[in-house]
Q: What sequence folds into this?
């Protein structure tokens, strides 16, 4: 069993008095240095909803997920071989596989299945945006993290902004209940998976470790892809860019950014970034698909950003 490494910011704080740099000067630099990674995580994760929606035009949900995970995993496996990295073994291999199945297979195949059953991408993003609350609550008993009242307030404000932003045009009906059930399953997958990742896979090597997780996820979703869907996919010229984006950008880059931030910060702070994903998804939809956000979306964006900033200002 491995334990998560100590965040670099703390070690910087311990060494600050010896170098003559006050703590107050060291902390803002650390936050600013992580800003590009945080922005990239939000944008890349948001694009996954659009690439998934486009991918479902050419492949059934589990088949699309299996192709995405297998392609990304094989690419990372090749990179690890070129770098001559030793593959994980024993208990570490098992922990990586479990985390990969939860974060990748359960989450994304459930999102695809939910959208395939008629749940709009905005509503799907809203449900997954509950992840900050569920992951923070799970981190208390399993990771012994503290969630202050101010941080909870920031999370709730962000969630309220998410709900306001996607309220326009969202209509619930009984025929969408199965799809909503899959989205809830996806929410549980990413919540449990990131907590499990931080608890047992904190020292994961990014390339070989992510390759193991993606290939484990591919094997799991391959079963329903073959037995239930009959490997339903249509390889066309328009499908390949969507598959490559979802595999290389969403799976490799997106999950890599998520794990990098989890190693450096608390689960509650990192997960609060996901409250910006629905608004970012709406923005990308407006840019790429011509969907214009209305006043409720803009108001929700402001409220969610306020809540997210509040959650990140809380010192752990």
A:
């Amino acid at each position: 069993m491995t334990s998560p490494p100590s965040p670099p910011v703390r070690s910087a704080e311990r060494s600050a008095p010896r170098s003559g740099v006050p703590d107050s000067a060291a902390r803002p630099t650390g936050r600013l240095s992580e800003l590009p990674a945080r922005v990239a995580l939000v944008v890349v994760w948001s694009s996954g909803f659009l690439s998934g929606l486009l991918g479902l035009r050419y492949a059934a949900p589990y088949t699309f997920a299996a192709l995405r995970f297998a392609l990304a995993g094989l690419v990372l496996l090749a990179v690890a071989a070129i770098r001559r990295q030793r593959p994980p073994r024993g208990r570490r291999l098992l922990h990586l596989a479990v985390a990969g199945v939860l974060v990748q297979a359960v989450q994304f195949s459930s999102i695809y299945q939910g959208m395939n059953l008629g749940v709009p991408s905005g509503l799907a993003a809203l449900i997954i945006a509950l992840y900050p609350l569920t992951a923070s609550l799970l981190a208390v008993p399993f990771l012994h993290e503290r969630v202050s009242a101010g941080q909870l307030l920031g999370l709730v404000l962000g969630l309220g902004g998410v709900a306001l932003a996607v309220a326009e045009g969202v209509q619930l009906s009984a025929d969408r209940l199965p799809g909503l059930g899959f989205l809830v399953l996806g929410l549980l997958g990413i919540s449990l998976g990131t907590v499990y990742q931080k608890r047992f896979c904190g020292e994961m090597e990014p390339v070989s470790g992510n390759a193991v997780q993606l290939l484990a996820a591919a094997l799991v979703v391959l079963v329903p892809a073959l037995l239930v869907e009959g490997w339903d996919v249509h390889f066309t010229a328009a499908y390949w860019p969507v598959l490559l984006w979802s595999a290389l950008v969403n799976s490799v880059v997106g999950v890599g950014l998520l794990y990098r931030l989890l190693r450096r910060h608390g689960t509650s702070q990192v997960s609060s970034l996901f409250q910006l994903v629905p608004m970012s998804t709406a923005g990308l939809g407006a840019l790429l698909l011509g969907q214009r956000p209305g006043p409720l979306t803009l108001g929700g964006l402001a409220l969610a950003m306020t809540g997210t900033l509040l959650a990140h200002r809380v010192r752990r």
Q: What stands out?
A: Confidence is low (pLDDT under 50) at residues 1-29. The longest helix spans residues 90-116. Residues 36 and 42 are 10 Å apart (CA to CA). Residues 57-143+172-271 form one domain.
